[in-house]
């Protein structure tokens, strides 16, 4: 993904300047905007140009995602979702499946959310891509709530798959004299896919059906 995020204590920050340990605006399972800790980067490509889907909503929000990235979409704007959960009326779809007329979850003010219709979807070329992983598994990019995950066509399964990484993070947080190893590379922003994400990518075809995996690359 590409764009800007809201970081607690820092304000609006480009994704390329995000660090492990930052508390970034996200959405919890109850549909509430919260600040969630960045615990790792699943993929970083600082100098590589690639194709992004620029999705613009009627509310004026624009978000840039790779085609395989998950975004929350619905065919209804009935925001009587005091969102019991993200899954109540919104499902995670690949960005390249987003269509004009569908609805995304966008921010409203500093703490609220609303459903905003997609006005346009365009394929553009941009340089640089960052995929941070938060504890909630979600992140607000340029005012649009998106998933931290890609490749797997199920936000629930993807989030469960990364429970090991979240568990390791929590384990290290209870050790007073040992820091979370990810912080050692936080400011370096080393290019490439995270070792755990790479491992899942390799073994996923053996445990998941083809309908759950992004096969268009």
From TrEMBL:
Statement: the UniProt record of this protein carries the keyword ATP-binding: no
Gene3D superfamilies registered for this protein in UniProt: Hedgehog/Intein (Hint) domain
Keyword annotations: Developmental protein, Signal
Gene Ontology biological-process entries: cell fate specification; cell-cell signaling; protein autoprocessing; regulation of gene expression; smoothened signaling pathway
Signal peptide per UniProt: none
InterPro entries, sorted: Hedgehog (IPR001657), Hedgehog_Hint (IPR001767), Hedgehog_Signaling (IPR050387), Hint_dom_C (IPR003586), Hint_dom_N (IPR003587), Hint_dom_sf (IPR036844)
SUPFAM superfamilies: Hedgehog/intein (Hint) domain (SSF51294)
Residue runs in coiled coils: none
Domain Hint residue range list: 4-108, 110-154
Matching Pfam families: Hint (PF01079)
GO molecular function: calcium ion binding; patched binding
GO cellular component terms given for this protein: extracellular space
Keyword Hydrolase: no
Identification of the protein by name: Hedgehog
Organism: Acanthosepion pharaonis
């Amino acid at each position: 993904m590409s764009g800007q995020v809201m970081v607690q204590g820092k304000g609006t920050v480009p994704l390329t300047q995000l660090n492990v340990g930052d508390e970034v605006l996200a959405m919890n399972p109850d549909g509430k905007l919260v600040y969630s800790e960045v615990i790792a980067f699943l993929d970083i490509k600082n100098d590589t140009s690639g194709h992004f889907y620029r999705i613009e909503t009627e509310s004026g929000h624009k978000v840039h995602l790779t085609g395989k990235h998950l975004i929350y979409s619905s065919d209804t704007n009935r925001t009587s979702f005091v969102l019991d959960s993200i899954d109540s009326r919104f499902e995670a779809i690949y960005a390249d499946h987003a269509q004009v007329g569908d609805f995304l979850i966008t921010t409203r003010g500093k703490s609220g959310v609303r459903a905003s219709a997609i006005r346009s979807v365009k394929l553009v070329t941009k340089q640089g891509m960052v995929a941070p992983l938060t504890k909630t598994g979600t992140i607000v990019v340029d005012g649009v709530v998106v998933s931290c995950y890609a490749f797997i066509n199920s936000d629930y399964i993807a989030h469960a798959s990364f429970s090991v990484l979240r568990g390791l993070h929590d384990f290290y947080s209870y050790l007073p004299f040992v820091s979370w190893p990810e912080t050692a590379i936080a400011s370096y922003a080393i290019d490439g896919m995270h070792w755990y994400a790479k491992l899942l990518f390799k073994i996923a075809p053996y445990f998941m059906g083809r309908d759950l995996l992004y096969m268009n690359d």
